[in-house]
TrEMBL record:
Cross-referenced InterPro entries: ATP_synth_csu_bac/chlpt, ATP_synth_F0_csu, ATP_synth_F0_csu_sf, ATPase_proteolipid_c-like_dom, F/V-ATP_Csub_sf
Domain V-ATPase proteolipid subunit C-like, chain residue ranges per copy: 7-68
Record HAMAP family: ATP_synth_c_bact
Cited NCBIfam families: ATP_synt_c
Keywords, comma-separated and alphabetical: ATP synthesis, Cell membrane, CF(0), Hydrogen ion transport, Ion transport, Lipid-binding, Membrane, Transmembrane, Transmembrane helix, Transport
Subcellular location: Cell membrane; Membrane
Family that this chain belongs to: Belongs to the ATPase C chain family.
Gene3D superfamilies documented for this protein: F1F0 ATP synthase subunit C
Taxonomic classification: Bacteria, Bacillati, Actinomycetota, Actinomycetes, Kineosporiales
UniProt membrane topology term: Multi-pass membrane protein
SUPFAM superfamilies documented for this protein: F1F0 ATP synthase subunit C (SSF81333)
Protein's name in the database: ATP synthase subunit c
Gene expressing this chain: atpE
GO cellular component: plasma membrane; proton-transporting ATP synthase complex; proton-transporting two-sector ATPase complex, proton-transporting domain
GO MF, any single term: proton-transporting ATP synthase activity, rotational mechanism
Length: 69
């Protein structure tokens, strides 16, 4: 018999989105720096801001998984 909480399953599925998002953010950053090396500092700031926002969504999902169990 399977026991547990469905909230943790939901968080596991919801963690796929931020994982894909982080991959896309840094893929675009690498592509942009490869095309325009002089714009590295501007693109780096944007990439890390996007990374922080994406990871905040993953952490928010984790908090809700524990909150609503």
């Amino acid at each position: 018999m399977v026991e547990g909480n469905i909230a943790f399953l939901g968080y596991g599925i919801a963690a796929i989105g931020p994982g894909i998002g982080v991959g896309l953010i840094f893929a675009a950053y690498i592509n942009g720096v490869a095309r325009q090396p002089e714009s590295r500092s501007v693109l780096q700031t944007i990439a890390f801001t996007g990374f922080a926002l994406t990871e905040a969504l993953a952490l928010l999902g984790l908090v809700f998984a524990f909150l609503f169990r």
